[in-house]
């Protein structure tokens, strides 16, 4: 992993930051959507229990 980072860094210093930002936003979005799904599922379960 470190060798890839240094190669990219030598090639274009800004590319590594773009990659990291992309990775972080992807992780963040995935976690967020999982959380939303989980809450939606909880809400559905609650409604089913009430009926």
Please provide a written account of the structure.
- The protein has 51 residues and is an all-alpha fold.
- The chain contains two helices and no strands.
- It has one domain.
Beta strand count: 0
Query: What is the CA–CA distance across the termini?
Result: 53 Å
- The value of Rg in angstroms is 20 Å
Number of structurally distinct domains: 1
Q: Helix amount, in percent?
A: over 70%
Layout of strands and helices, then pairs:
Layout lengths: L1 H10 L1 H38 L1
Short structural summary:
Helices cover 94% and strands 0% of the residues.
List keywords for this structure.
51 residues, mainly alpha, 94% helix, 0% strand
């Amino acid at each position: 992993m470190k060798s890839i980072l240094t190669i990219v860094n030598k090639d274009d210093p800004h590319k590594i930051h773009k990659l990291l930002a992309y990775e972080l936003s992807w992780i963040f979005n995935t976690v967020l959507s999982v959380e939303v799904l989980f809450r939606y599922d909880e809400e559905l379960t609650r409604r089913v229990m009430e009926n």
